[in-house]
Design goal:
The strands form two sheets. A six-stranded mixed sheet has the order 1-2-3-5-7-10, with helices on both faces. It has a four-stranded mixed sheet with strand order 4-6-8-9. It folds into two domains: 194 residues, 2-enoyl-CoA Hydratase, Chain A, domain 1; 48 residues, Lyase 2-enoyl-coa Hydratase, Chain  A, domain 2 (Orthogonal Bundle), CATH 1.10.12. The protein has eleven helices and ten strands. The protein is of the alpha/beta class. The chain is globular and about 65 Å long.
Length: 258
């Protein structure tokens, strides 16, 4: 169905694999369009409760397609950057939890793709960086905005302004990834985390994601009001009655997403 991504759905978990291993899964407009369409398919499929994004072969995504950018003029670069932001914003804004299973190089656009996800699990072999300054450009798919929100402004400037590439353990230490596992256990760990999350109340998980993300850019007073409204809204759902009822009755909850 898609030339550059693979889609799998298993027990409520959608897996989107960037599938361009001959080019280290590098991103161009065609790959970005397939990412957008493939992710939209999973985001709108009611049977999918969580999404895992990973890469085929040795790379998660090794960056943007550098060869394709060589003759690119500012107008074409604007189109490419806008397309990248369209994809990353879609991933970030979907109410469903999205886990990045980072199997290898996550450089440039690959690091930006990982940052658009909610939670990042990395193989011990993974490498991270925003090396665009080595090419005379800057990150164009959200790196200058998401990186400092994850690891702080000073550390983000250090990585972006030096173009340094760091390993998975350092990425974990600075807060760029949440967990590091052996390569052979990466997808197992990602699936286990997704399975745990989707066992919870789906409406509550979606509300938590949205409230955290939207509230992050508000002042504390406005964000607190947002939380109050989101908290109260869930009290009108059947899932709230089921969750509290199951707790009081000491039985597993059976959530209905309503």
């Amino acid at each position: 169905m898609y030339n550059n991504v693979k889609i799998e759905i298993n027990q409520g978990i959608g897996i989107l694999t960037v599938n361009r291993p001959d080019a280290m899964n590098s991103l161009n407009n065609d790959v970005l369009n397939d990412l957008f369409d493939g992710f939209t398919q999973l985001a709108t499929d009611e049977s999918v409760l969580a999404v895992i994004i990973t890469g085929e072969g040795k790379a998660f995504v090794a960056g943007a397609d550098i060869a394709a950018m060589y003759d690119m003029n500012p107008l074409a670069a604007h189109e490419l950057s806008s397309n990248g932001h369209r994809v990353m914003n879609l991933i970030e804004s979907t109410p469903k939890p999205v886990i990045a299973a980072i199997n290898g190089f996550a450089l440039g656009g690959g690091c930006e793709l990982a940052m658009a996800c909610d939670i990042r699990i990395a193989s011990e072999r993974a490498k991270f960086g925003q090396p665009e300054v080595n090419l005379g450009i800057i990150p164009g798919f959200g790196g200058t905005q998401r990186l400092h929100r994850l690891i702080g402004k000073g550390m983000a400037k250090l990585l972006i302004m030096t173009g340094d590439i760091i390993d998975a353990q350092e990425a974990n230490r600075i807060g760029l990834v949440e967990k590091v596992v052996a390569p052979e256990h990466l997808m197992e760990a990602a699936n286990a985390l997704a399975t745990k999350i989707i066992s919870k109340a789906p409406l509550a998980v979606a509300s938590a994601k949205t409230t955290i993300d939207v509230g992050y850019n508000m002042n504390v007073s406005s964000a607190s009001t947002l939380e109050i409204e989101a908290f109260a809204e869930l009290f009108g759902t059947q899932d709230k009655r089921e969750g509290i009822g199951a707790f009081l009755e000491k039985r597993p909850a059976k959530f209905q997403k309503k």
